Amino acid sequence: MRKTVFTLLAALLPLLAAAQEQRPFDVTISNDEYKIYIRLNLYDKDLSVPGQDVLGQVDGYFGSTQGQTKWFVISSEIVDDRTAVIEAVNDYGSEDLTAELRLEDDGTYSYRKTDGSTLKFAVRGKWQKIPSSLKFVKK
User: Fold this and answer.
1) Is 1:8 a contact under the CB 8 Å cutoff?
2) Which residues make Cβ contacts (< 8 Å) with residue 86, sequence separation at least 6?
3) What are the two backbone dihedrals, phi and then psi, of residue 11, each rounded to the nearest 5 degrees?
4) HSE-up (13 A, CA, CB side) for residue 41
5) Residue 23: what pLDDT?
6) Residue 8 is inside which H or E element, if any?
7) Closest CA to 89 of 122, 126, 58, 68
8) Residues 28-43: pLDDT tens digits?
9) Taking the C-alpha atoms of 47, 137, 122 and 124 in order, what is their torsion angle to the nearest 10 degrees?
10) Most buried one in 3, 11, 29, 45, CB count within 10 A?
């Protein structure tokens, strides 16, 4: 009996791992070179931005580990199981952008701005501009 239970559990574990992979846009990803991160939940769209609860729930947000500047994902569309299009606005509401996020075969995420403003963060009193294309890794 114990062998049967153990065999059944061993057979189900890969299925549980596969179920987690079916939500690639419910994730926190980061780029260590620019010290930025993206927190997303494009499925439930129910994230609260730390320190910005007055905004309510959003699809996600961009942040910097070097400052308080945030960009909010205000709209998103999952194109297929590996690609999503997001629209983001800065915390002043003065700039916005459209970008594509893609889950690559190696498990990294590629960010590519397709329209709008340049993503930038206030770091030590200066604006740090982020390239239009960038790689992110899962935290």
Assistant:
1) no
2) 40, 42, 59, 60, 73, 75, 76, 98, 99, 100, 101
3) -75, -30
4) 8
5) 95
6) helix 2-21
7) 58
8) 999 999 999 999 999 9
9) 130
10) 29
pTM of the model: 0.83
Task: Give the helix/strand (H/E) hosting 108.
Answer: none
Distances 81 to 31, 42, 62, 104 between C-alpha atoms, Å:
22, 12, 21, 11
CA–CA separation, 115 and 128 (whole Å):
19
**Lookup: tokens for 40:** 């997303």
Task: Return the number of other C-beta atoms located less than 10 Å from residue 128's C-beta.
Answer: 17
What letter does residue 56 receive in the DSSP assignment? -
Contact (Cβ atoms closer than 8 angstroms) between residue 47 and residue 29: no
CB atoms within 10 A of CB 136: 21
Q: Which of 70, 66, 100, 69 is nearest to 82 (CA)?
A: 100
AA identity, residue 87? E
